[in-house]
Design brief:
CATH topology of the largest domain in chain A: Rossmann fold
Structural class of chain A: alpha/beta
CATH architecture of the largest domain in chain A: 3-Layer(aba) Sandwich
CATH superfamily of the largest domain in chain A: Response regulator
Largest sheet of chain A: 6 strands, parallel
Oligomer: homodimer
Strand content of chain A: 15-25%
Largest interface: A-B, 53 and 53 residues
Amino acid sequence: MPINLKDVAREVNLSINTVSRALRGLQGVSEARRQQIREVAERIGYRPNRAARRLVLQRSQSIGILVPSLNIPFFAEIDIAIQEMLQEKSYFLYTLNTRDDPAHTMECIELLVEHRIEGLLSIGLPPPQSAELLRSHNIPVVVMVMFQGDLPPHFVGYDDEAGGYQAARHLIGLGHTRIAYFTGKWESDHASLRRTGFSRAVDETMGRVVSRVVFDNYDNTIRSGYQSAGGIVDMIRKGEVSAVMCVCDAVAFGLMHMLNEQELRIPEDVSVIGYDNIEMAEFSIPPLTTISQDASRIGRFGSNLMLQMLESGEDWSKVRHQVLLEPSLVARQSTARLGKSGESAARRHRAKAESNPAV
Amino acid sequence: MPINLKDVAREVNLSINTVSRALRGLQGVSEARRQQIREVAERIGYRPNRAARRLVLQRSQSIGILVPSLNIPFFAEIDIAIQEMLQEKSYFLYTLNTRDDPAHTMECIELLVEHRIEGLLSIGLPPPQSAELLRSHNIPVVVMVMFQGDLPPHFVGYDDEAGGYQAARHLIGLGHTRIAYFTGKWESDHASLRRTGFSRAVDETMGRVVSRVVFDNYDNTIRSGYQSAGGIVDMIRKGEVSAVMCVCDAVAFGLMHMLNEQELRIPEDVSVIGYDNIEMAEFSIPPLTTISQDASRIGRFGSNLMLQMLESGEDWSKVRHQVLLEPSLVARQSTARLGKSGESAARRHRAKAESNPAV
DNA sequence: CTGAAAGCGCTTACAG
DNA sequence: CTGAAAGCGCTTACAG
């Protein structure tokens, strides 16, 4: 049914390989002929069949990307940036949502292998069982954003340790001496790197600043941040903490919502800093101080690295190529100098308790 | 380099078509042989080549989806739902981000045609220039979510008119008699349908309720809602409006941010209702009353419709198949009964002005 | 400048 | 139960 080279060839009374060469702009076809062939192809609606071209060229000119959850805008933006970069270089990108489920991820990878992708980009580590399959098909892998354990040999992401350090430095610079890090029970490696950076900044103060780590959040959602904020609220009330760094903006929003319900003021009673700089961070009440990462930069670096691996002809299996981008702090109104705005939460709480012994 | 049928055949000393049949589970191969062939294929890492299979089967078993901006979670969720549905039916989904740019969308469509997609799903109408190409290649199109002009013949989306009506009914039911609809200068058809539904509810009151439409927002972002909220603020101050419906949640958040800055209380001074029920709506301060649409339902209905068109064998070119889902209202704390909480914004404003004539 | 032939990796009749 | 052959739509040497 669809029109093929033979149809065009018949129409112009030439052989299919002349038509093929003309359409691809190769030399060895007179300009007049080429013109004519082009017109006919256009008129009868000819489009080359990629499957056939792939088969004969023995390469797919396509790359796969594994995204744990495409509905996270940060991940989607990485995908978009990569799609644009690759289209420019006439590679095709297969985008697959893995639901962060190893079994389903394996199926996705097998599908991509059957499509003969030339390279695999992955947000987060692909499951270990896939390593042998990818290796045996000679498919290079670039991991982006997240990993567990050792830094993967080909990696592009932000330096979470540096981000955590920056956030803590910001709070310390504002005079806070009792600060908390609010994270999840099951920490991903990058969450724990943020915590490590946070702790390094605290340690550098040689005891002048003390910190607590609260592992109460579940899954880094707004809801979870809200539901697990109780411990933090207590500490603020008791004056044990005057500033909180959250593992991500969503958790920060959940915490802020709870603080608001508990009539704790931000930043007067407690400073809050997030991580990610999602769109909403600029418009929350108050606007959220946070650590900013540029998704499209990851996409650009990731696709560039992949393209290098594909086109340099080098043996990359023994080369490590790891790109760690430096995140940047965006100061907004959710953090402020300690004690700037009068009485602390602890003092107010104490006053309240004294006037009403039942509390 | 990659292993093919011939490699497996050589290994087991059989012809490639026996191997092919065994691996695909067709009858006519003894069970013992099949077992042996499977093992060998597994051992040497054979994976069928999709390009070759497509070529010979004369079908790609794949479908394309055009997404204007994949980083809008609502759209991404539609994509995810479709990907899951189609994978179950062993179709492959090509996800392409079009940037909402007609020229780029055309390139995307041409690419998909070269990949011989069997059907095209599109969030929003594909550009008119693509119609001829798609028709000539016999590719059915299902439009989702948005359209301009007439309802496309194959469409799945939510009934925006009904949503606008529900929102207005909600405000009227709370006793508001002066209500506003806050939308953009250049209204999309679905934004204007929401407005139509809104107006219908107002009209039904036979003049008991009056409404204003404010076309000041630009591009339905939080920022734009914030920057263009001035007109609404004035009306609230003057007592001309006690409730506002926004074209979407993002604009509602922008408006709320401005109201907060202007010390207008929600819902005491003004009720605000959004549209979309994005994740943040549950956690804004106050939580936002809004109209909810289920993205994965659109995805499920959309892919089902496409599958029907592909597999029923009917001539769908003369059949209209339009699915309009009913959205639902989610009542939260940003809307309240009129005058419930004491003095109105207008009265407070007047009092303030009297005590300070300079205002 | 143009064409005939081989072949990419598979599946599908058709023989045996 | 198994194999030889043709062919899907293209590109690439190789002739002319």
